[in-house]
From TrEMBL, chain A:
This is Dipeptide transport system substrate-binding protein. It comes from Dongia mobilis. CDD domains: PBP2_DppA_like. Belongs to the bacterial solute-binding protein 5 family. Residues 1-24 form the signal peptide. Residues 70-449 form the Solute-binding protein family domain. One of its GO terms (molecular function) is peptide transmembrane transporter activity. It is found in: Periplasm. Keywords: Signal. One of its GO terms (cellular component) is ATP-binding cassette (ABC) transporter complex. Its main location: periplasm. One of its GO terms (biological process) is dipeptide transport.
UniProtKB/TrEMBL annotation, chain B:
The lineage of its organism: Bacteria, Pseudomonadati, Pseudomonadota, Alphaproteobacteria, Rhodospirillales. This is Dipeptide transport system permease protein. Keywords: Cell membrane, Membrane, Transmembrane, Transmembrane helix, Transport. It comes from Dongia mobilis. Its main location: membrane. Residues 96-325 form the ABC transmembrane type-1 domain.
């Protein structure tokens, strides 16, 4: 099979004119699911971002491959006004949109495309705000962009100014996210004139490294390299996503040479993947955290001492071994260690059941019984919540706390766990969107998020002030100091038991060169090559 | 016969109404809603939640939503997927041929092996051959499909490298779908090797999906055959001195096949509803996996439209089986 694929790829290139020569290089990615659509802005799933945002589109600002550092993209440079309210972007000249069977651009990328890409998400009366039935812009809303934006001004064809209502330090990182992908206004106009607006989501046009060729639902997505990509044409000629939802089958396909690279292996299969001489298993610490959130509004969990005692009863190392197969590290802070402003000076609460029991006694807690909520789904930050809950249950029993494990179907779990009067501690986690600490600390622990993503229902004035102050400060050094301080408050108050930061694995054929794993968990194939 | 057909068709109307209610109600009984799932761990504010539910039309009284659904169905509009924003009917039509192709192959495989196995078991009743065939059928019937599929992949695709792991055709072949049936489209494409590749990709999924029907058909054939072999006319045929082949092949089999055909028809109905596990293991883009995804995402229009379409297909198959049965066995026609 291994040899068959290469021959096959060459034949395909000839048969379909994917590339001029028989040596066309094709990279096959065994992706884990089907994209929801090919316009990334209306969606929230990483699978869609891989297939649309990363492959097809570019943004004003990009994440440097393999990091969370923001670098110029379609904007060559930008200036931020002293009050932090005006961001002026100088756009790159000579950037071409994809020429495809369904669209031939007559002009280069310019300010009109930027305005179109954002205004359609922002303005309710925009002709493209609801371009197909039931479309909504959840990431744009989730990142509070409607509250944040005051105006987007076209200064000239190659200069755009974003005016904000309040300073927002993570603004630049936000613009590197997939919802901020730039779509072609000229293409949209063509579709509108033809009365087929919905095709924007089915036959996409972008300025990214690859252009769309075809999608067979739930089976295969085909792309070819964008010959006029502004950073130069990619080394591979064709990119194929072979949609393979089961992890064991992905592994078999990779081993058989039916694909070159796969995401999300089963933790239990890692040993055999690593033993395969033809494969290379890359790994990276994920930008994630798995936690147990107490309901800090309910007695006795409103007492930080009780929360801290329970945290000290949990044997995190045992959890890492059993649930993460060792592929992770114990978490002491709510943000992962690879993120800037991570406060390494903080001491974790030691695992000490004896001390924990004494602390509970001191707090006057006797015969405590509680619920532990276990998620029904597997996530990178928690591959097996049920098992994790059982281990914590045993740990709690050792300090005299009876825990009952409850679980709900995922939709219900997400919904019920938000309730302010929720009974019990919830296992959940988070994978960062944009590499900014605000995306963890404010989103998951801010006062505004109580009754929402703040599952601990924890509103601490001191913590909240620090995080809010950091949000409106543009100086990185100062923000770092504020976030470090916030982590001290977090540790002292212990609204969560921070459990683990997991490691993410990416098995691939040894022929694949230049692949970089993104800490954000996105899969991008720009800069990747295949050795013949 | 006409009267029989008319009565049979008339029965479809209340069945259809019942199915619309079931399809509509089923997904709404499940807790959680599409907005919550879309927002994921981040969550969504109460106001935004209400706004989106209103945008989707889910804020209306439930009976009004149902009547809307029914009215739209009557005009051929099954709604638009909340996830892909594409019409449900378009999605179904894109995926159904894959399910149809695999189901037909699986049932043909099951019938070709199952009927002879059942006959052999019946004619050698009590022998070691009978016992091993029936034993194997029992194992096949209780086979955990996911494990079975993976086992075949690891052995045939992984170790022996004889068959591809998953998918419908090698990635080297790329042609627009015409019928959606890969065996047909690969021939129409005129590309060398395409048909062979499509066949190769069908082998393992066909075996896996055909395993349970194979067991059912073998057992059904055996018991039907045993019943018939005890009949007077078979004894007469034997007494006339006909060869065992003629007795079994001509006289007994014809009558024994009637219940077997019903069984096959019902199995086709079951398979066309989508084979969730087989489709998942073999990355087969069919309607079973599509429905499961839609349920998990609470994609109401896809679930209710999809269930309705699947039910229509099953109803159609059952109708055909009933009519065929009526044709083969005139006694049925006169039953009211």
């Amino acid at each position: 099979m291994k040899h068959r694929l290469l021959g096959a790829v060459a034949a395909a290139a000839i048969a379909f004119g994917f590339a001029a020569t028989a040596e066309a290089k094709t990279l096959v990615f065994c992706s884990e699911g089907s994209p929801e659509g090919f316009d990334s802005a209306p969606y929230t799933a990483g699978t869609t971002f891989d297939a649309a945002g990363q492959a097809i589109y570019s943004r004003l600002v990009e994440f440097e491959n393999g990091t969370t550092k923001t670098i110029p993209g379609l904007a060559e440079s930008w200036d931020v006004s002293d009050d932090g309210l005006e961001y002026t972007f100088n756009l790159r000249k000579g950037v071409k949109f994809h020429t495809t069977e369904y669209f031939t651009p007559t002009r280069d990328f310019n300010a009109d495309d930027v305005l179109f890409s954002f205004e359609r998400q922002w303005k309710k009366d925009h002709a493209w705000h609801e371009y197909t039935p039931g479309i909504s812009w959840e990431y744009f809303n989730g990142m509070s962009m409607p509250d944040l934006l005051k105006d987007i001004v076209k200064v000239d064809d190659y200069t755009v100014k974003f005016v904000l209502n309040r300073p927002e330090a993570p603004m630049i990182a936000n613009l590197a996210m997939d919802f901020a992908s730039i779509v072609s206004k000229e293409y949209a106009d063509q579709l509108e004139a033809a009365g087929t607006k919905e095709m924007l989501n089915q036959q996409p046009v972008g300025t990214g490294p690859f252009q769309f060729v075809a999608y067979q639902k739930d089976a295969v997505i085909r792309y070819k390299a964008n010959p006029s990509f502004y950073k130069g044409k990619e080394k591979i000629d064709d990119l194929i996503f072979a949609i393979t939802t089961d992890a064991s089958v992905r592994q078999q396909k990779l081993a058989a040479g039916e694909c070159h690279i796969m995401p999300y292996p089963n933790p239990a299969d890692l040993a055999s993947l690593k033993a395969d001489p033809n494969l290379n298993v890359m790994e990276q610490e994920g930008l994630n955290v798995g936690y147990l959130a107490y309901n800090t509004t309910q007695a006795p969990f409103d007492n930080p001492k009780v929360r801290k005692a329970l945290n000290m009863a949990i044997n995190k190392q045992a959890i890492l071994d059993a649930v993460f197969q060792g592929a992770g590290q114990p978490a002491k802070n709510p943000i992962p260690p690879t993120m800037w402003s991570y406060n390494n000076g903080i001491m974790d609460d030691p695992y000490n059941p004896g001390a924990a029991k004494n602390m509970l006694d001191e707090a006057g807690v006797k015969n405590l019984s509680m619920k532990i909520w276990a998620m029904p789904v597997s996530r990178p930050y928690n591959p097996n919540a049920r098992r994790m809950a059982e281990l914590i249950q045993a740990d709690f029993k050792a300090v005299g706390v009876e825990a009952e494990i409850v679980s709900y179907e995922w939709a219900e779990y997400l919904d019920l766990s938000k309730a302010k009067d929720r009974d019990g501690a919830v296992l959940l986690g988070w994978t960062g969107d944009n590499g900014d600490p605000d995306n963890f600390l404010a989103v998951l622990l801010g006062c505004d998020a109580v009754g929402g993503a703040n599952r601990a229902q924890w509103c601490n004035e001191e913590f909240n002030n620090l995080v809010q102050k950091a949000k409106v400060t543009n100086d990185i050094a100062e923000r770092t100091k504020l976030y470090e301080e916030a982590q001290v408050v977090f540790k002292r108050e212990a609204p969560w038991a921070t459990i683990a930061h997991s490691v993410v694995f990416m098995p691939m054929s040894k022929k694949v060169k230049g692949y970089k794993m993104s800490p954000l968990g996105i899969h991008r194939f720009d800069g990747v090559d295949i050795e013949e | 016969m006409l009267r029989f057909i008319l009565i049979r068709l008339g029965l479809l109307v209340p069945t259809f109404i019942g199915i619309t209610i079931a399809a509509f109600g089923f997904i709404r009984v499940l807790p959680g809603d599409p907005v919550v799932l879309m927002a994921g761990e981040r969550g969504v504010s109460e106001e935004r939640h209400a706004e989106l539910m209103q945008q989707f039309g889910f804020d209306q009284p439930i009976w009004l939503q149902y009547l809307d659904f029914l009215r739209n169905v009557m005009s051929g509009d099954l709604g638009t997927s909340l996830v892909t924003k594409k019409p449900v009917l378009v999605e179904f039509m894109a995926l159904f041929p894959a399910t149809l192709e695999l189901s037909l192959c699986a049932i043909i495989f099951a019938a070709i092996l199952g009927i002879p196995a059942g006959i052999i078991a019946a004619t050698r009743r009590g022998s070691w051959l009978d016992q091993s065939i029936m034993g194997t059928a029992l194992i096949g019937y209780s086979m955990p499909i996911f494990w079975w599929g993976l086992l075949l992949i690891i052995f045939f695709s992984g170790m022996l490298q004889l068959t591809p792991v998953s998918g419908r055709i090698s990635l080297m072949f790329f042609f627009p779908p015409v019928t959606g049936l890969m065996l047909v489209d690969s021939l129409l494409s005129g590309q060398k090797g395409a048909f062979a590749s499509a066949v190769q990709h069908l082998i393992l999924p066909t075996i896996v999906l055909g395993t349970i029907p194979l067991a059912v058909i073998a057992r059904q054939t055996r018991s039907a055959m045993l019943e018939v072999l005890g009949e007077d006319y078979v004894r007469t045929a034997r007494a006339k001195g006909l060869t065992p082949f003629r007795v079994i092949g001509l006289h007994a089999l014809r009558n024994a096949l009637i219940p077997v055909i019903t069984t096959i028809g019902l199995q086709v109905g079951v398979l066309l509803g989508g084979a969730i596990l087989t489709e998942t293991i073999f990355s087969w883009p069919g309607i079973g996996k599509w429905m499961v995804d839609a349920i998990f995402r609470r994609d109401y229009p896809s679930v209710q439209g999809g269930l309705l379409l699947i039910a229509l297909v099953v109803m159609f198959v059952n109708l055909v089986v009933d009519l065929l049965y009526g044709l083969i066995n005139p006694k049925i026609r006169h039953v009211r």
